Q: What sequence folds into this?
């Protein structure tokens, strides 16, 4: 199936831990994104990479570090997790161009206890 | 002023009716506009994109864009209970590397 996939789907962890979320797309897109959806369902961009190069870095704590080993993968590592990091994290991808239709992965629900 | 504004709802319509969802945006340089549907516990699903003033139809969905008024809407004809979801309006200012700015979403409930 052609899609954007993420692992894990659920992540429950203690404050202070470090965790990673992985994303892969097989749509042949060259741009990938991380979005955060908070408890009020508001969706906000965090990062985007184009062909392994960081192009968007919103005001996100530096405990969050994206890594793109190749243009089909974009991972998100979070250090020293805090209660406020609890949210759903979505990966998305698009093809560079004037229209930039973005397609989302299934999401990772992160719960920090 | 929020960059992208939607009525949060819930918007309730009877089955078979037309549901009208509205969105306004603040930045005139915005160039691409999208409607996503999000079922509870699921990811946003792209259902419509529009780039030029006027109407764009796809099945039961019609997107309308008025750049002068900074307004984009989504009409759902013959609404079905399966259309019950949150609808997210998103705007792309193409000079910002593909950054999508989302509204807070409108919850739609279609009653049988």
A:
């Amino acid at each position: 199936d052609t899609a954007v996939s993420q692992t894990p789907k659920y992540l429950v962890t203690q404050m202070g831990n470090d965790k990673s979320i992985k994303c892969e797309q097989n749509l042949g897109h060259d741009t990938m994104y991380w979005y955060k959806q908070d408890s009020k369902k508001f969706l906000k961009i965090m990062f985007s990479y184009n062909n392994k190069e960081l192009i968007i870095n919103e005001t996100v704590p530096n405990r969050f570090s994206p890594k793109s080993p190749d243009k089909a993968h974009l991972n998100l590592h979070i250090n020293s997790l805090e209660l406020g990091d609890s949210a759903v994290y979505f990966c998305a991808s698009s093809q560079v161009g004037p229209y930039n239709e973005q397609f989302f992965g299934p999401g990772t629900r992160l719960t920090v206890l | 002023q929020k960059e992208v504004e939607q009525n949060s709802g819930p918007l309730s319509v009877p089955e078979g009716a037309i549901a009208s969802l509205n969105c306004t945006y603040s930045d005139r340089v915005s160039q691409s506009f999208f409607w996503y549907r999000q079922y509870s516990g699921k990811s946003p699903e792209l259902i419509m994109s529009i780039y030029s003033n006027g109407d764009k139809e796809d099945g039961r969905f019609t997107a309308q864009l008025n750049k002068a008024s900074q307004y984009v809407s989504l009409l759902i004809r013959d609404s079905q209970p399966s259309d019950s979801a949150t609808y997210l309006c998103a705007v792309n200012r193409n000079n910002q590397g593909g950054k999508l700015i989302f509204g807070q979403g409108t919850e739609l409930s279609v009653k049988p």
Remarks:
- Chain A touches chain B at residues 31, 33, 40-45, 48, 50, 55-56, 90, 94, 96, 98-107 (CB under 8 Å).
